[in-house]
Amino acid sequence: MAAPAPTPRSWAWLGMLPFTLFALMFLLVPTAFVVVGAFRAEGGGFTLDHIANLFTPSILAAFSISIRISLASALLGCLVGFAVACALTVGDLPRWIRGPMLTFSGVASNFAGVPLAFAFLATLGRLGLVTVFLREWFGINIYALGFNLLSFWGLTLTYLFFQIPLMILIVTPALDGLRREWREAAEVLGATRAQYWRMVAFPILWPTLLGTLALLFANAFGAVATAYALTGSSLSIVPIVLFAQIRGDVLQDPHIGYALAFGMIVVTGIGNAFYIWMRGRAERWIK
Q: Any residues with CB less than 8 A from the CB of 156 and at least 6 apart, and which?
């Protein structure tokens, strides 16, 4: 009896090598270095002192405002993004709008940092285009009414520029996965449009919506360039406090910097893990 032919060696795994090396050098190794540094004493031993420093009032306040901004931008991003996605998929909008909107969403979801901060300052700053237009043509001074771009709601509004498009990109495929037969079956059984969404569509979409909310929260919580370029040090969110610890000024403290980074890893890690878990549940429904 002839021996079975040897399985030909596959070199397909080499295609993953560049990404694996990139992730190892710029994600896994730095993350491990931060985690180890958060628990390393000055003499090289193990300590929890750096983690305990996270519970000081100033750092707790920074985490509090970061969590509130991230949660506000995530909730608003989910609501507005879901409405836009519904209009594109199950609404009565012309079909030709979908392509440009999704293309714009793909670009806008990655538009952040200094360019985004400059765009909002040029638009809604004290001498911004919209601010001056409202004041000169309609006599409305939004800053006299209490609006301030360099504030909690100003930063939240800025974050919505990339939060809403990200929500659109994620929830649109889920809405496309709602089968027409489900709606027709509900209508045959006498269900109204509201009952269909409440009893059929939303229970199916719920894992996707919750998972995307967690992803948007983590996305906003880790944003630093936009916040720093827009508000400087006037709004003490965690990424800005962390930046102050590592940029080399009088506030520099590598140990508290490691602890802050570790705290951010934990918060964003929980958000991303919840998103992955809920996405798995949503994919089982769609299948």
A: 69, 72, 73, 76
pLDDT digits (tens, 9 = 90+) for 173-194: 888 888 888 888 888 888 888 8
| Residue for token pair 């420093």 | 53
Q: What is the DSSP letter of 21?
A: H
Query: Which stretch, 31-35, 59-63, 79-83, 274-278, has highest mean pLDDT?
Result: 79-83
What is the residue-wise DSSP string for 24-70?
IIIIIHHHHHHHHHHTB-TTSSB-SHHHHGGGSHHHHHHHHHHHHHH
Residue 172 and residue 205: Cα distance in Å, rounded?
Answer: 11
CA triplet 60, 65, 69: central angle to 5 degrees? 150
Q: What are phi and psi of 237, to 5 degrees?
A: -90, 165
Task: Give 151's strand partners.
Answer: none
- Summary mean pLDDT of the chain: 85
Distances in whole angstroms, Cα of residue 112 to Cα of each of 66, 124, 197, 199, 243: 17, 16, 34, 38, 17
240: closest CA among 94, 87, 82, 65?
65
